[in-house]
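Model the whole thing, not chain by chain.
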Amino acid sequence: MGKYQPKDSFQSPRFCGPRTFMRLPYIEKLDEHMDFIITGAPFDSGQSFRTGARFGPEAIRDFSILLRPYNPEQDINIFDYISGVDYGDIPVVPGYITETYQKIEASLAPVVEQGIIPIVLGGDHSITLGELRAIAKKYGPVALLQFDAHSDTWDSYFEQKYNHGTVFRRAIEEGLLDVSRSLQIGMRGSLYGIEDLQDARKLGLEVYTTNQYKQAGVKKMLEVIHQRVGTGPVFLSFDIDFLDPVYAPGTGTPEVAGASIDDALEFVRGLGGIHFVGFDLVEVLPAYDHGQITAAAAANIVYEFVTLIALQKRAKLQQ
Amino acid sequence: MGKYQPKDSFQSPRFCGPRTFMRLPYIEKLDEHMDFIITGAPFDSGQSFRTGARFGPEAIRDFSILLRPYNPEQDINIFDYISGVDYGDIPVVPGYITETYQKIEASLAPVVEQGIIPIVLGGDHSITLGELRAIAKKYGPVALLQFDAHSDTWDSYFEQKYNHGTVFRRAIEEGLLDVSRSLQIGMRGSLYGIEDLQDARKLGLEVYTTNQYKQAGVKKMLEVIHQRVGTGPVFLSFDIDFLDPVYAPGTGTPEVAGASIDDALEFVRGLGGIHFVGFDLVEVLPAYDHGQITAAAAANIVYEFVTLIALQKRAKLQQ
Amino acid sequence: MGKYQPKDSFQSPRFCGPRTFMRLPYIEKLDEHMDFIITGAPFDSGQSFRTGARFGPEAIRDFSILLRPYNPEQDINIFDYISGVDYGDIPVVPGYITETYQKIEASLAPVVEQGIIPIVLGGDHSITLGELRAIAKKYGPVALLQFDAHSDTWDSYFEQKYNHGTVFRRAIEEGLLDVSRSLQIGMRGSLYGIEDLQDARKLGLEVYTTNQYKQAGVKKMLEVIHQRVGTGPVFLSFDIDFLDPVYAPGTGTPEVAGASIDDALEFVRGLGGIHFVGFDLVEVLPAYDHGQITAAAAANIVYEFVTLIALQKRAKLQQ
Amino acid sequence: MGKYQPKDSFQSPRFCGPRTFMRLPYIEKLDEHMDFIITGAPFDSGQSFRTGARFGPEAIRDFSILLRPYNPEQDINIFDYISGVDYGDIPVVPGYITETYQKIEASLAPVVEQGIIPIVLGGDHSITLGELRAIAKKYGPVALLQFDAHSDTWDSYFEQKYNHGTVFRRAIEEGLLDVSRSLQIGMRGSLYGIEDLQDARKLGLEVYTTNQYKQAGVKKMLEVIHQRVGTGPVFLSFDIDFLDPVYAPGTGTPEVAGASIDDALEFVRGLGGIHFVGFDLVEVLPAYDHGQITAAAAANIVYEFVTLIALQKRAKLQQ
Amino acid sequence: MGKYQPKDSFQSPRFCGPRTFMRLPYIEKLDEHMDFIITGAPFDSGQSFRTGARFGPEAIRDFSILLRPYNPEQDINIFDYISGVDYGDIPVVPGYITETYQKIEASLAPVVEQGIIPIVLGGDHSITLGELRAIAKKYGPVALLQFDAHSDTWDSYFEQKYNHGTVFRRAIEEGLLDVSRSLQIGMRGSLYGIEDLQDARKLGLEVYTTNQYKQAGVKKMLEVIHQRVGTGPVFLSFDIDFLDPVYAPGTGTPEVAGASIDDALEFVRGLGGIHFVGFDLVEVLPAYDHGQITAAAAANIVYEFVTLIALQKRAKLQQ
Amino acid sequence: MGKYQPKDSFQSPRFCGPRTFMRLPYIEKLDEHMDFIITGAPFDSGQSFRTGARFGPEAIRDFSILLRPYNPEQDINIFDYISGVDYGDIPVVPGYITETYQKIEASLAPVVEQGIIPIVLGGDHSITLGELRAIAKKYGPVALLQFDAHSDTWDSYFEQKYNHGTVFRRAIEEGLLDVSRSLQIGMRGSLYGIEDLQDARKLGLEVYTTNQYKQAGVKKMLEVIHQRVGTGPVFLSFDIDFLDPVYAPGTGTPEVAGASIDDALEFVRGLGGIHFVGFDLVEVLPAYDHGQITAAAAANIVYEFVTLIALQKRAKLQQ
C-alpha cells in the first residue's frame, strides 16, 4: 500500500475536513513516495467569454470527497498500487499570463523532474502552455491528446498572442508538442470561419469533430488514439467543454450537442497502456454550475486519470 | 369511475390549491374505495452525504400537479379503473431511525392490511426497511425490484447498523425479502472495495450494474426482471439516483453516468403483469434541484407506478 | 378552542404532509366554525413586468408550516380564540382578467356574506378588484389601507383598463372604496411623471411615500392610519413590494430602498382595534425568490393578519 | 457580403454592448437589404402553467452573442449570402391576447409583404396565431412544421378560445394552414384523454410522438417531413419543450423524456430545400433556466434557422 | 509572531489551495504553539426543519479565505499575538446523536485540556452539548453567552431528549452551565406557547428577545452582558439565525426580523475582557445560501472570535 | 425636450427589445445632442478575488428598463432637460490591462472632448484609470469622490502594478487627481495591515470608513464632501461593494456590514451642485447576483447620476 492514501470514510464521514482531492493528504513538499500529485492552476485571465475558472480547483476538490478508492470499471483498488497527494495550487498571477506561465513552469518542473505525474486542475485552458513547458524540459516534445470543443489554435485574439484560444499554436511554435503523434477530439460549434479547423490541421494536428467521433463510435476512436499517440510520452488535456452543457453547464464557452459523460468516461477508461506524463482538466467554472453537476463530471474524469496511473504502475509491477 | 379522482384542471387551473399528488383528494383516513395511497416518509437522518430528502415528498407533489389522467404510452385512463388519495405523510422522528421505523410500520400496516397499495415518497432510502416490515406482515417475504446506483447492503456505517447504506442487508436479515426472486439494477460509481458488489451478491441478490443494463438493453433486462421476480408479491424500490445526475441533480449521493429518464420510463412501463404490493421512490433532495428537473422525473416515475396499479386492476376486471 | 386548528408539530414534524397555510385543515366548504379562511387567487396576467405570481400562494403556504400558534409580540395564542381553514384557491382564468374577476367575486361573496374574514394570497395586485366587489356587496364602500411601492391608480396601461396598475382607480370608479377613509403607504421609485402620485391624491386617497413614512416613523404613521380609517370597515391590501428587494426579491416590480420587515411587522402589529373585513397579500413571485426569503416575509405578515383577527375576537369576548 | 453583419468579435469582445441577436445591428426600420429579421414577441399571458416567457427574447439574445458566422455542419459562412437585423420586439399587450394578435399581425405584415423572412422569438406559443395571420395574408394557407411536446389543438381552456393550448386549432379554423401539408413532431407526456392526440389528427394534421420519432430515427423522419410539406411555403414553429427538460429546463410546461439537442439540430439541419416563409422559437422561460442551458439550445436552433435562409439564398444564387 | 500563520496572499492569491479557515495551516495534531484551533462538527441530524448544516464548516472555510490578518475595528494584527490552525473536523456519526456527542467530547477534551481555545463550526446547534461536556471537564460549569433566535430549551421534541431544540436544557441538567452567569439574546418568532420563553427563564437563564435588544441598543446590552457573565469562564455560542434571514438565508430555522450584521459585529467586538474558553458558530446551511451571504457573515463573526483571543493574549502580554 | 429619449413604455412594454440603459437609443456615434452617454467597460482581468464583472454592463442594462423618467425624490423629469444615449461598450482587451487602458482612453477622449459626460459601467475597478486619463486630458487633475469598501491604493499586487487594488495610487502618480480635493468613503473589512488605510491618507486622500460615515450620518458627510471637492471638476467613482452584501451580493470582493441602498441614494441625491465631469459604477458581478438585487441597486444609482446631470443642466438653464 502506498504511503499517501485518502482518509478512511468509514472512520470520519466524507464531508469532514478541508476539501483535498479525494481526501488525500495536503502536502506541499515533494518526496519519493509520490506517484502523482493533484495541483490547481487557478488562473482565468485567458478566458474570452465567461470568467471564473479560478474557482475550478476548489469545486472539483469539493465534489471529489465522494470518490472511493476502488474503481469497479477498471477493477483496481487504486491505492494498492500508487500513492499521491493534494499538492495545493500553483501561485498564479491574476491578470498576467506571462508571469503566470513562469509560475506554472517553475512549480511543475521539479515535479516532472522527479518522475511524479502532475494532474493539474484549471483554470482556463491557457494554463496548459505553462504545463507543457515544464513537461518538455524533461521529455522533449510530447504527444497531445486533447478532448475539447475548441481547437484553441488561433494565432491571436484581440491582437494578443496568449490566451485560452491560442495555447496549442503557441505550444507547437515553442516545440513542446510532437504534432505527428497529437490529436484533438470534440470540436464543434459555430466558427469564425472555415479556417478555424483547417488551421489546426495545417499545424499537423489530427482533428476529430464531435460529430465525427459520434459517427465512428468511441471504440473505433480509441483505436485511432492509440495508433496516433504510439508509445512515446503523452500529455492528456481535457477541457470540460468537451461535454455537452447539460453535463457541464459550468464552463467558459459552452457549445451545445457535446459528448455525454458516458462517452467521456469510456474514452478515458480506454486509454490504458498509453505512456502518460501529465494530465490536466480545465475550464470548470463553478459560478455557472448548479447542483455540482459539472464538478461531479470533472472529479470523476480526474479520478479516471488517477486510475490510469495506478494501472500503469500495476502493469509495471506485473511485468 | 373510481371515487377519488384528481381535480379537473379544466375547471380550476392546475396551479390552484395546496399541492397533493396529482391533485388527488387529501384524506388521512382509509376506506374501501382506495386502491392505492400516496404517502410521504420525510426522513433524511439516514443520509451519508447530502441531507435534505425530507423535503422530497413536497417537491414531488409540487410538480405532480402537471400530470394528467390519461397515460398515452400505456393507453389507459387511469381513474377509469382505480381510485386513490394523497394520504399525507408518515410522522417520522427526525434524527431517530429506530423510532422512525416504528412509525412507518405502524402507519403502513393498516394500509397494507386492507389490500391498499402504498406508494411511499422518500425521504432517504433507509425508510424502505420500515415499509418492508409492514408489507411482510401481510405477505411474508416479498421480492425486491430495486433501481438504484448503490446496493445499500453494507453491514454498517460508522459502526451503526441503520442508515441508507445498510437497509437491504437488514431487510434480508429480518427475513422480509425473498432474495431468490430479488434483483438490483443500476449499480455504478466508485466503491470502497471490490466486496461492495460481491456482498450484495453473496446475500443472494442478483445485481446488474448500469453498464451491464446498458449493454444488454432495457428490453432484454425486462425479460430478466420478469423471470426473476416471477408471480409472487413484489416490492419496487426506486432510488432517484438510478438516473444520471443531469436528470436528477437533486439527490443525496449522485453518481455520474447513470440511466436516462427514457430508460427509466421504459423500465417501469415494462413491468405490467408483475404482482406489485408496494412501491417507493426515494432520495429526492430539492435543495440541490433546479428548474424542478429532479421533481419532474420523480413525479413521472410515480405516475407510472400508479398506471401499473390501474393496468393490474383493468387486467383483473377483464379476466 | 376553535374547531379548526393547525396540526400539532410535536406530533408530526412540521415538514409532513401537503402544505396548507400554517398546517390548517384543507377544507373547501364553508361552515359556521370558521372565523377566517386563507385562499389563493393565483392570477398573474395583470403583471406589467415580471410574471409568475400565480405560484405565490404555494410559496407562502410552503414556508408557513414553520409558523407556530403563539404570537409573543401580541401575547396571544391565536387558536384559543379563533378557528380557520385553508380554503384552497379561487379558480381564476389565466390570461382573462374580466372572467377572473367574476370568479373571485363569486368565490368570496358567500365567504363575506357569512361573516367569515377572507385572507387572500396573490397573485398580482389586479385581483384586489374582485375581492373588493365581493366585500362591498355586504359592507358597501370600505376604507382601503394599502402598503405598496406603487399607487396602482393609472387610468390604463397599453390602452387597457384592467391590470395590476389600475386596480384602485377602478375600485374607486365602481364605488367600492370609501376614499375619505383610505390611505396608501410606501410609494417610491421612479415614475412616468409627476402626475403618477398626484392622480392618486386627486382620487381622494391619502398617499405617503416610503421616505415620508421613514421620516415620520412607524409609530407616528400608525396614529395617522388609525385616525384616517376610523371605526368603519377596512380592507388591508399588502403588496409585498412595500418591502425592500432584499426582504422581497421575489416580486413583480421591485423598487429599491423600501421598508424593512421590522417596520412592516410593526405596522401590522399596530393595527389592533381596526375593524378589518378582509385582507390580501399580493405580488409574491417565487421564481425570483431564493432561500425562501420573500416567502418567509409574506407568511409572517399573513400570520400577523390572522393574529389581528384573533385579537379582534378576544376583544369582543372580553367586552 | 450582405449589408448587415454581426459585429466582428475580434474587434470588440463578444460580451460588449447591448445584446442583439448574434450581435447584428439593431434596426427597427425595414429596408431592401434585409433577407431576414429577428424579432421578439414577449407575450406570456397565454401560458397555462408557468409564466415568464416574456423574457425569452432577451435570454436568447443574451446567449446568442457566442454564435459565430461560419456554420461548419452546413459548411456555409452565413453572411456571405444574406443580411439581416435585430428588429427589436413587437409591442405586445400584456394580459390581452386579442389585442396582442393585432399587434403581431400589424408588425409582421409589412415584413412578410417585402419578402423578408421573420424569425420570431417567443413568448408563449399563443403568439404563433398572430404570425400566421401575417404570413397567410401574403402566402395564403401555409404548411406547418411544428416541433413540440404538445399539439396545442384544444378547443378551449377554461372556456376561453385563445391561449397557448388552442393556437393551431384556431389557425386551422381561420384557414391559415394547409393541413394537408402540415405535421407535428414530438408529442409526449400525460394527457387529459385519448382525444388529445386524436383531435389533432382529426383536424388533418399528421402527428408523430417523441417515441415514434425516436423509433423511426431522425433520418427517416426527415424524409417524412420533406414528403409531407412538399414544395409550397412552410412555417416552422419550434416549441423549446420539444427538447427534454435537461436541455430546456426553462420552459412553461416541461415534459420529461423529450428530444436531445443533437436530434433537434439534426432535424433543423436536415430541412434544406424546404421553402420556408417564417420561423418561430417559443416558450423559453429564463426564470427557470440556469447556466443558460435553455438559452443556449434556443439560440443555436435559431442560428440553424438563419443558416437555412442562407442556404436557400445560396441555392438560388447558384441556380 | 506566532508559529502558525495564514498563507501570505501577496505570495499566492487567496483563492489558491484547499480551503482552510483563513488559509491557516491544516494540522490535526495539537502542539504548544496553538492558542486556538478551528474545527468543524458537521452534524445535522439534530435539525428539526431544514437539514444540511453538515456542509456548514466547508462553506465558512470557503469564504474565510478573503479574511486578512489586520482587524481595523479592533486595531490589532491578529497573528502578531497568537497562533492557530485549522484542526480539521470532528468525526461525527451521521444520524446518531449520542455517539456524536461522544466523538465531540473525545475530540475536544485534549484541546481544552492543553489550554487551547476551540472554535467549533457547526453543524446544527445540538453539537454544543458535546462541546460543553469537554469544556466543563476542565473548567466546571461555565457561563453561556448565546446569540440565537431560539432558546433551545425544550424538554423534548417528538419524545426525544436530544436534538437542536433541547440542547441547553440538557446542558443545565448535566451541570455544565453556570446559569447564574448565563444569558441568551435574540429570541424571536412565533412560538408553540407562552411557556417557550418562560421555560428558559425558569431554568435560570436571562433571556432577551430581539426586540428587547433593539430597544435597549447594543451598547446597553453589552453592559448587561459583561455584568452578567462576570470574570469566570464563558462559552460563546452563536447561532447564525440570530441574524435576519437577509443576512443569513442559509440556515435551518429562519425567523424574520432578526439582527443586522452590523449589530452582530458590534456585539462580538464589544466582548473584549471576557474570559472566553470556547466558541461555536452553528446552523450555517449552505444549500439555502446564495452568493455566499451567510458564509460571509459567519466567517466574519468567527474572525471576530479569533480577534477576541488575540486581544486577550495581548492584554496578558501587556500586563 | 432632448432629442434622445427612452422608449415610451406605454407604447411598448418595458420588457420589449434589446436592453439599452433605460431604453435609450443605442447609438455609437457622438453628436451635439448628447449631454451624456452610458457606456460599458466590460473588463474583469483586474479582479483579485471573484471574476465575472465583464457581464456587469449587461446586467445593469437589463434591470434599467424598469426605470422611469420622472425622479420624484429630486422632482425632475430628466429628459425635459437632457438627452443621452446608450453608446455601447468600449472594446476592452480581455486579459490585457495596459492595452485595455489604451482602448478606454481612446474611446472616452472624444466624448470628454465634446463636453459630453461619460457614465461608465464596469467592469472591475481597474478601468477607472483609463477613464481618468481621458478626463484629465481635457480637465487636468480632477477631484475624486469615491464610494467603495476598499481604498484601492496598494502599490502592487503579486508584484504587478496594474489591477483593481492599485488603481488610485497609479492615478495619483500619473497626476490625474487633485488629491487635495479628493476623498474616499466606505472603507471597511479586514486588512493586510494597518498601513492599508494609512497609505491612502499618506497619498493625500481623505478617507472615511463605513463606521465613520455611519456615526456621522449621511447629512453630515454630505457637508464634508461638498466642502472637500469644492467647485472644480469632480469624478465620481462608485464601487458597488460600498453597499452591504445583502444589497449587492453580486460583486468581486464583498465585505460585510456595508452601506444600505437608502444611504447610498441619499448620498448621491445630495450631490447636486457639484461640478461632475464623469461617473462610473463598477464591480457588478452578475454570476453571484440573484433576483437582480445587485443590478437593481446599480441601475438605480446610475439613474441618480443621470438625474444629477439633468439637475446641473436645469440649474444652468435657470441661471
